[in-house]
Structure formats: structure tokens, C-alpha cells
Design brief:
Blueprint (H helix, E strand, L loop, with lengths): L2 H12 L10 H4 L1 H10 L6 E5 L8 E7 L2 E7 L5 E5 L13 E4 L3 E2 L6 E2 L5 E3 L18 E5 L2 E5 L8 H12 L7 E11 L3 H8 L5 H4 L21 H23 L7 E3 L7 E6 L30 E6 L3 E5 L4 E10 L2 E11 L10 H26 L15 H18 L1
Antiparallel strand pairs: 1-10, 2-3, 2-5, 3-4, 6-7, 7-8, 9-10, 11-17, 12-13, 13-14, 14-15, 15-16, 16-17
Helix pairs in contact: 1-9, 5-8, 5-9
Protein name: (Fe-S)-binding protein
Organism: Acetobacter aceti
InterPro entries: Rieske_2Fe-2S, Rieske_2Fe-2S_sf, Ring_hydroxy_dOase_asu_C_dom, Rng_hydr_dOase-A
Length: 418
């Protein structure tokens, strides 16, 4: 980072006004984007995959985060491992992005060969003094939290992921993610900065006019509202949601399903939030008729009407766990004005498409919602590049969680530059 960029960034961080959107350069400046990749995506735990992506020994998935490429695989001892996708000979990229199966990791350049434990097994013509033990693949920190796979590129990853795991595993365990499979996966390129993608996700102020599919099962009131602005019908709906949340939380907790809100979005390095939210009508699933999309329940869940467990992590994920399926979302910045959103829909591993579920019905709510969000992020990015852009105030009723994301980001960047 040049001295000029450092001074600009420190000035912007110092003058950030709580309760207001970030200034335009945070969304548009390539130098600031590079610092984001270094200090946020290079130093924090990043959600990248699910255990069903590497269900069996030899299964592998390659994920790119900025300039870094990481191989995630399951070894013969059933342990999940992660390595930099860089050959220890002359640095060639070895496996393309995506899922594959490997017996060994073989560099296509000079055939250096590594076991799925990362150890160098074969390197021809290197001489008698060459020690293969010193040329194994570089390890990447990896942690599965109830089947959600996180990696950290830092040499000293934040230790508080263990605190997050301790809280979250009881919430996630009943859905038995490890015994699911990925029924469908979608990569959507959003024409906006990654922070706009996260900010859009952290509020439902925009849901009513923009998400006609999502607001069938999902109550926007669960993310805050201004009581004085509601008409009579909306007031009744808000009251109905509040009563439903209270009774459902008590019932679910009584059934052994942790449900009440836990919120650490801006007071932990590995920030997170969770809450089991009521689903409208039947209460079963985030579908257009709110009924379960898959007839095979997850885990040992007997009650179909268990709402949707919402789980967010800083800086790049959100997830919805229901009784019949799971939807996970990962955000990967591509450049200052482009972001990849990767969505996976998971069902029980024994569920059969066309028999136990219809793929369109399973995915249609979030397919539509993702595209609607991408359109909103795009117009937000366009506005951030306009000379007339000025950071406006957040709603104290509906955008409190956006403020927590912004506060977390500002705090982590300040700590990195201190």
C-alpha cells in the first residue's frame, strides 16, 4: 500500500460517522479494495463450502479468494484439509476452481505429485540432496462448524471461531448438514462492491417492494420496523409476527431446538448472528406455498413447522436452515465493483430429485430473490460512482444490522492499520 493510499484510508476510517453509510471510495476505490482483500479476506475466517462438497476421501473442491486459490479435500482418515493451490516447485496452479476427485494432487507442469495429506510424494530429477519433506504443500487453516467449512489465509487465524462454534453447533446440529447433498448450486455475478452485497443482505427495509416471492414465507418485521409508520393492516401483521415469534421460540426450545437470537456481529473478530425465525402460513419452508419442498426431513426432525434458522457470519456469508432443506450463501469479491455470490441448496442425501422434491420448487424463491438483490446492488454501485453521492443515514428501526456490519468492518480495518 502506498503512503498516499494509507493516508486516504486512515482519514476515511477516522471520519466515518456511526449510523451513516460508508463514503463512496469504500465501494469504488481499487486501492481500498486491495486493502479489503489483504486485511479482511486475508485475515478472517471465510465461509467457502459444505462438508458434502468433500463427502468422501479424495473428494476435493478448489475455491478462489482474490489472488489466493485453496484446495479443500478429505483425506483417508476422514479429516478435512486445506492447502494453497500452488506447486512447491515453480509455483504453478495445480487444480482449476471447482469440484473434482483426486487420488493425488499432480502438478500439470512438471508432475510433482502430492498426497491428499499435502506431502510431496514424487519429484523427478531433483538430485540426491533434495529433501521432499521440506516441499509439502503449504497448509491453510480450516474449520468445519457443524458441516459448514471455513478457511483462514492468515498465519495466525482468529481463535474466537471456537467461541462461535461452541454457540452455533447446537443450533445447526439438528439439521444434520453432514448427511445432506448439494441438490443445486448457483454462481451469480453482482455488479457491485462486496460491502454493498453484505449491506443489502443485513436488512429487510427493501424487502416489501422488491421481494414478492421471499415475503410470502418470510416476515420482514423480524428485522425491525417503525411502529408509527404502519397502517392498520400492517400493525396487525406485526403484532401477529411478534406473538408467533414468542410462542414458536418457546415451543422450539421445548423440543430441543435452540432458537432465540444470539448476536455478536460487531463485538467479535469472528462476528456472527443467529435466530430461528417463524415462517408464515404453514411454517414449514421458504417456498411459494410455505410447505416443505422436500419430503425427506433432515436429521431426526419430526416437526415440519420449525421455521427457518438464520445464521450470518462476518464478512461473507448467510444461511437458512429449515426442516426439509438448507440454503447457504458465500460472497467472494472479484474487484472493487464486482462480486460473486455462490448459493447452494442442500437436501437429505437420500432424497431423489423428481420423487422427493422438485428442483424448481426447491430453488425458485431464492433464485428470484438473488437476482432481485443483484439488481439492487448494481444500482447502489452506480450511485456510489456518481459525483453527487453523499453517505445518508441508516434507519434506526430497520438498518441496525447494516450499521453493525459497517461498524465491524471499520473496526477491523482500523485494527489492521494501527
Amino acid at each position: 500500500m502506498s503512503g498516499q493510499t494509507e493516508e486516504m484510508l486512515k482519514t476515511l476510517l477516522a471520519r466515518r460517522k456511526p449510523g451513516f453509510a460508508l463514503e463512496a471510495p469504500f465501494y469504488t476505490d481499487e486501492d481500498i479494495f486491495n486493502e479489503d482483500m489483504k486485511h479482511i479476506f486475508g485475515q478472517h475466517w471465510i465461509y467457502v463450502a459444505v462438508e458434502p462438497d468433500v463427502a468422501e476421501p479424495g473428494d476435493a473442491i478448489v475455491v478462489n479468494i482474490g489472488k489466493s486459490s485453496v484446495i479443500i479435500t478429505r483425506d483417508d482418515d476422514d479429516a478435512i484439509r486445506a492447502f494453497h493451490n500452488v506447486c512447491r516447485h515453480r509455483g504453478a496452479r495445480m487444480i482449476p476452481e471447482g469440484k473434482t476427485m483426486i487420488g493425488n494432487i499432480v502438478c500439470p507442469y512438471h508432475s510433482w505429485t502430492y498426497g491428499i495429506d499435502g506431502a510431496l510424494k514424487f519429484a523427478e530429477h531433483m538430485g540426491e540432496d533434495f529433501d521432499p519433506k521440506c516441499r509439502g504443500l503449504k497448509k491453510v487453516a480450516v474449520r468445519s462448524v457443524a458441516g459448514l467449512i471455513f478457511i483462514c489465509l492468515a498465519e495466525n487465524p482468529p481463535e474466537d471461531i471456537e467461541d462461535m462454534a461452541r454457540v452455533m453447533e447446537p443450533y445447526l446440529a439438528p439439521h444434520d448438514l453432514k448427511n445432506t447433498r448439494v441438490a443445486f448450486e448457483s454462481d451469480l455475478i453482482e455488479k457491485g462492491n462486496w460491502k454493498l452485497t453484505l449491506e443489502n443482505n443485513r436488512e429487510c427495509y427493501h424487502c416489501g417492494p422488491n421481494h414478492p416471492e421471499l415475503t410470502i414465507p418470510l416476515f420482514a418485521y423480524g428485522f425491525g420496523y417503525a411502529p408509527g409508520t404502519l397502517d392498520e393492516d400492517s400493525q396487525r401483521d406485526a403484532q401477529r409476527y411478534a406473538e408467533l415469534a414468542t410462542t414458536c421460540h418457546a415451543r422450539w426450545e421445548g423440543e430441543g431446538l435452540p432458537s432465540r437470537e444470539v448476536e455478536h456481529l460487531d463485538d467479535m473478530v469472528t462476528g456472527f448472528r443467529t435466530e430461528r425465525l417463524p415462517i408464515d402460513r404453514s411454517g414449514e419452508s421458504q417456498t411459494l406455498d410455505t410447505k416443505a419442498a422436500c419430503s425427506v426431513p433432515l436429521g431426526d426432525l419430526k416437526d415440519k413447522a420449525i421455521g427457518g434458522l438464520s445464521f450470518w457470519t462476518q464478512p461473507n456469508s448467510w444461511h437458512h436452515f429449515m426442516g426439509d432443506h438448507i440454503v447457504t450463501f458465500a460472497v467472494f469479491p472479484l474487484d472493487a465493483s464486482t462480486t460473486l455470490v455462490r448459493t447452494k441448496w442442500l437436501v437429505h442425501k437420500d432424497a431423489v430429485e423428481g420423487v422427493d422434491y422438485d428442483l424448481q420448487r426447491l430453488t425458485e424463491v431464492w433464485q428470484a430473490t438473488n437476482q432481485q438483490d443483484a439488481d439492487l446492488v448494481e444500482i447502489s454501485q452506480q450511485g456510489a460512482t456518481d459525483p453527487a453521492f453523499e453517505a445518508g443515514p441508516y434507519s434506526p428501526y430497520t438498518e441496525g444490522l447494516v450499521e453493525k456490519f459497517a461498524a465491524w468492518y471499520i473496526g477491523r480495518m482500523k485494527a489492521a492499520l494501527a
